[in-house]
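WARN retry 2 of 3 for item q-0093 after timeout on previous attempt; input resubmitted unchanged.
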Amino acid sequence: MKALVISGGGSKGAFAGGVAQHLIQDLGNRYDLYLGTSTGSLLIPHLALGDIPKVRHAYTSVNQESIFSRRPFTIQRKHGTASIGINHWNVVQNFLRGSKTFGESHNLLQLIRRTLTPEEFQTLKEGASDLLVTVSNLSLNQVEYKSLRDFDYDEFCEWIWISCNYTPFMSLVRKNGCDYADGGLGCIVPIEEAIRRGATEVDAIVLHTEVTQLNRMPSRNAFSLLTNMFAFMLDRIEQQNIKIGKFVANQHDAIINFYYTPTVLTTNSLIFDREQMTQWWERGRQYAASKSGRTSPLEPE
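OK item q-0093 returned
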């Protein structure tokens, strides 16, 4: 049983898309199980459908407005570097509306529903592969995996959205009497779950460098501090996920093929830049090709 696992990573998901394109389209790999966390959850339905051009176009066209119905930060560019500042007006308005978070991401839910049609969902439901998205249940203090087979179209789209909600910058969702948020808060790389469900070979796309290559810049404001703190915590969670995944794989004689980013792509994955993400997609595909031993250059489609 073969599984494709894609970690969380915000805008860096474009790199994962390029890697997955090589694995599925160029190498012809087929997977019995697809697992995604956060940005990985957005990718896996379209990868399971095999519609690479559609997901590539959708993923490299996304911007801040595609995601945020109320964006809590501004983007400041200086000397080629992008940083975030607080959008005080939007944050205050959000709190006055009774929100528990700085921003809201309802536009992303609409984008998911526009991109994944009910007909495509039905095709996936009738297919042989299972799809699972990772969510964090903050009320019960546990990680949950939501299978496409257990829900209808609207519910599964909502679980994909919840998996991507990077609180407190994006929406906190109250569902079934519990508060839910981004799956990456509990499990960024769900390798253990893939093996627990019977995978004997796992292709794991990890949107982080294998070795730490980053010294973070000093925090400039409260949001910058928050993003740095979350990045630090998520790095620790990711490393723990990978260690546990390797241990479980050894216990079950499973094989894990890792695909890390070879360089640091960005220090803020909440910034979505079309040109940059298009480049990352191609870099991901070329990187995967180099790992698989293909020497001919891959041309953008």
